[in-house]
Every structure is written in structure tokens, then in C-alpha cells.
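Q: Make up one entry.
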Amino acid sequence: MKKALIFPIGLFVMLIVVLTGCKDEETYPITPEISFKSLVKFQNVANSDSLELVFNFTDGDGDIGTAEGDSVNRDVFVKIFEMKNGVFVEFTDLAAPLEYNIPYLEPRGNNNSLKGEIKINVEYNVIQPNDTIRYELYIKDRARNRSNSITTSTIITNIQ
């Protein structure tokens, strides 16, 4: 009788272990997707503030980032908006576009999907003091697939 009970219980325990030990790999679309996480202002020593912009990303085929030494391609494309008369308007008086590189990333293992967090330091001394601003951005992967666009929270400049 004991042997008859041990086999079904052992089989049940093994089944539970197998079912809980096997997780489906996370997969995502091959077009990158991003979501806003935070925008934090830091006071620098030279009386010039900078911002840390943080967002999450996923990419199904794992082709995120620019190869080292590539001075042509950019991955992160940012627009700045300032509030005028209660409405956000794109600030276009920039000497150069706000474009940034993401380090070259490669998936590990058999799953090509990537998921992570990206932090970018943005200097924003191009705006007048006491302006209310926000950013809009998107990324492109190495196949040049464009992600969705996200909008950051607002921040008030205090550059003098």
C-alpha cells in the first residue's frame, strides 16, 4: 500500500517541479517599444543644470545600440518643448539636434529579445530661465525600426 501511494505522490511532485521550472521566454515585437520612467534635474558646480532622462525599452530582435566608432548613426532622437501661453510648443532654436547613442547591446542565449533601462544625461541650458519644458523622444534600432514616441514629465528651468 505504501509503495502504491509513493509513486503517485512522487509523480505529482515531479510534475509540479517541471511545470514551475519551465518559464516561457519573454518575446517582444521587433520594433522597439519605450516607456517613460523619470526626468531628474541635477545642479552642476558650474551653475549649469543637467537632466537625467530615464526610460525603459524592449526589442524583439535585440538590435539596439550603435557600434563603437560609428560617428554617423544615432539611436535616441529628442525634441524639446517649452510652454508658451499655456501650450507646449517645440523649441527649434537649437544649434544642433538632440540626438544620442545607445551603447551596442547584444542578447544573450537563444532568446534575441532585449529589455532594459536607458539613462541619458541631457544638458538643457538652451532655454531661458524659469521656462517650463518637457521632452518627446523615440529610438531606432540598428535595422532603423522606429519606436513609439514618449513624452516626459515637465520641469522648470532655473538657469541664470
Q: What stands out?
A: The longest helix spans residues 2-21. The chain has one helix and nine strands.
